[in-house]
Write a structure and sequence with these properties.
Layout lengths: L9 H23 L5 H9 L6 H17 L3 H19 L11 H11 L1
Helix pairs in contact: 1-3, 3-4, 4-5
């Protein structure tokens, strides 16, 4: 019988660390603008209540930090994937599936989070 074994090498660890740092920093930087008062107007235009500002901002900020430090990475990546699905369907109105606007960037975030 054949057996598949994943080798844990230094290169493997460095690669995963680099991906975690990159995705974590992207989401942290993206979430900082959501703590600003101007984000409330954006939420109102979407029809979302203003009380959602901090949960949405924290849903990107906290998992980003956890990805960088390497704690709860699977849970953090799952939360970020849910946030990106919300961005695709609620914010963009699923326009990304019709070939308009920021398609590659949002798909990248979603794939990286998974």
């Amino acid at each position: 019988m054949t057996e598949s074994v994943i080798r844990h090498t230094l290169f493997h660890d460095i690669t995963h660390f680099g991906v975690r740092i990159t995705v974590g920093l992207i989401f942290i930087m993206h979430s900082l603008g959501k703590f600003e008062p101007g984000f409330l107007g954006f939420l109102e235009r979407l029809g979302l209540p203003p009380e959602m500002q901090f949960p949405i901002a924290l849903a990107e900020f906290v998992p980003g930090i956890l990805l960088i430090i390497g704690g709860l990475t699977r849970i953090s990546a799952s939360i970020l994937a849910i946030v990106m699905l919300g961005a695709i369907f609620v914010v963009k109105g699923a326009e990304n599936f019709t070939g308009r606007e920021e398609q590659n960037l949002i798909y990248y975030y979603l794939q990286a989070a998974l």
